[in-house]
Each structure stands twice: as structure tokens, then as C-alpha cells.
């Protein structure tokens, strides 16, 4: 089984001091930095683009896990690769050519991830499972931090864990993850926990990350 990793989402950070926020979560014990890219079209919110991502990349040597909530994604894959992404994850729902998008990410020398919305079944990724390094299960409808975890995500995590079998693929969960549900999420088969509000709340990043990690260490 793969190691448990905590990936704070900088969507919940103070954008006025994004570099400092990334340094702070790095020092507080984050394993990865989860970067949410939103285009106001695929999701009803806008975050930031590759130039901002490139500037904050300099603040940490940790893995930058880039979650693209944009459609189309293909025209921007190279920009995010050049901006310093380590993993680039595209949505099943973002376009008709998921296979091409994943090929393009690997051709750029980056790890490829695939993600599905709560309304999209686990079976939607069967045809591409051998093309990915990471599968991300959304446990909220993407667009905003601070939403409640959707319990049916647990069944989907179990189904995808079975689909992965012995492949060296990380299984990540994003949306409403807290210390209170981390054990359920890990028990269902996830090994990478994204957390935005649960990490940044109250400014106690180290304690918050440790609480999620301890709860998930089952
Ligand atoms: C939602 C984003 C998430 C979000 C998580 O569209 O993909 O990464 O920032 O935030 P919390 O942990 O607050 O649900
Ligand atoms: Zn995300």
C-alpha cells in the first residue's frame, strides 16, 4: 500500500501572500501542494493561471499537484508544465478527448492524473487507467472550498481502489476532507488527502495537518 500523503489546497490560502502561505504549509508538514485552477466556465469560479502558479512554485520544492478545472484543458497543459507542475490532473468531463489529454501530459514529462465529479461514475476511467499516475475522486462539486463531503464518494473510492489493483497509482480525494472523515476516506482506499479549509482554518497549519494525518493513519 502507498504512503498516506496530505496535500493542502492553496485555494484556501490568503492570495495576497501566496508565496508565504506555500512556505508556511511546506514548513508545517505538507507532503504535496494542491493547486486548484478554475476558469469560470468548467466551474462557476475563477482562481488563477499559470503565471501565478509559476511565481509560487519558487516558494517550495515539494510536489506541485495541479488540479485543472478548465475546459478545454489541452491548450494550457504546456503552460502548466512549464510553470512547474509535477502532476497535472484533468477532468473526465472537461472534453471529448481525455485519452489525448493524458498522452499530452506524459509527453510533456509530467505525471498524469484523471479526476471525476461526484455525478460521474468510476467506470468512466476504465479505458485510461493504464495511462495515469493518479486518480482523483471529487467529494464535492468543484468550484469552491469549504463545502460538505459527499458520502457517496466513499463507494467510488472503493470501486477505484479495486480497479487500480496492483498498479502504482495514487488515489486522491478532494473536497470536504477533515480530521473527522479522514479515517473513512483512507479505509475506503485513498492515500492522498486534499484539504483546504481544514488545513488553513485558524492559522494553525502544523496542528491542522498533523490532526488530518493522525486521523488518517489507520
Ligand atoms: C474544489 C477544489 C478543492 C477545494 C478543497 O473545487 O478542487 O481542492 O479547495 O477545499 P476544502 O478542503 O475546503 O473542501
Ligand atoms: Zn482540487
TrEMBL record:
Species of the source: Undibacter mobilis
NCBIfam families per UniProt: PRK05581.1-4, rpe
EC identifiers of the protein: 5.1.3.1
GO biological process: pentose catabolic process; pentose-phosphate shunt
Designated name of the protein: Ribulose-phosphate 3-epimerase
InterPro entries found in the cross-reference section: Aldolase_TIM, Ribul_P_3_epim, Ribul_P_3_epim-like, RibuloseP-bd_barrel
SUPFAM superfamilies recorded: Ribulose-phoshate binding barrel
Catalytic activity entry: D-ribulose 5-phosphate = D-xylulose 5-phosphate
Enzyme kind, highest EC tier: isomerase
Residues holding substrate: 9, 67, 143-146, 174-176, 196-197
Binding positions (a divalent metal cation): 34, 36, 67, 174
Task performed by this protein: Catalyzes the reversible epimerization of D-ribulose 5-phosphate to D-xylulose 5-phosphate.
Keywords: Carbohydrate metabolism, Cobalt, Isomerase, Manganese, Metal-binding, Zinc
Family of the protein in this entry: Belongs to the ribulose-phosphate 3-epimerase family.
GO molecular function: D-ribulose-phosphate 3-epimerase activity; metal ion binding
Amino acid at each position: 500500500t502507498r504512503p498516506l500523503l496530505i496535500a493542502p489546497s492553496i485555494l484556501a490560502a490568503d492570495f495576497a501572500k501566496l508565496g508565504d502561505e506555500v512556505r508556511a504549509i511546506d514548513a508545517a508538514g505538507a507532503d504535496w501542494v494542491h493547486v486548484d485552477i478554475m476558469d469560470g466556465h468548467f466551474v462557476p469560479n475563477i482562481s488563477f493561471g499559470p503565471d501565478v502558479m509559476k511565481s509560487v512554485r519558487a516558494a517550495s520544492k515539494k510536489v506541485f499537484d495541479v488540479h485543472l478545472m478548465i475546459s478545454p484543458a489541452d491548450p494550457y497543459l504546456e503552460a502548466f508544465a512549464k510553470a512547474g507542475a509535477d502532476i497535472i490532473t484533468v477532468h473526465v468531463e472537461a472534453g471529448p478527448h481525455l485519452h489525448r489529454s493524458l498522452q499530452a501530459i506524459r509527453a510533456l514529462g509530467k505525471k498524469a492524473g484523471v479526476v471525476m465529479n461526484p455525478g460521474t461514475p468510476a467506470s468512466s476511467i476504465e479505458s485510461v487507467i493504464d495511462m495515469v499516475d493518479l486518480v482523483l475522486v471529487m467529494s464535492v462539486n468543484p468550484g469552491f472550498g469549504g463545502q460538505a463531503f459527499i458520502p457517496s464518494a466513499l463507494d467510488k473510492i472503493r470501486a477505484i481502489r479495486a480497479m487500480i489493483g496492483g498498479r502504482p497509482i495514487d488515489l486522491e480525494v478532494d473536497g470536504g476532507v477533515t480530521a473527522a472523515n479522514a479515517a473513512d476516506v483512507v479505509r475506503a482506499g485513498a492515500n492522498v488527502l486534499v484539504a483546504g479549509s481544514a488545513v488553513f482554518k485558524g492559522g494553525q497549519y502544523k496542528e491542522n495537518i498533523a490532526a488530518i494525518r493522525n486521523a488518517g493513519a489507520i
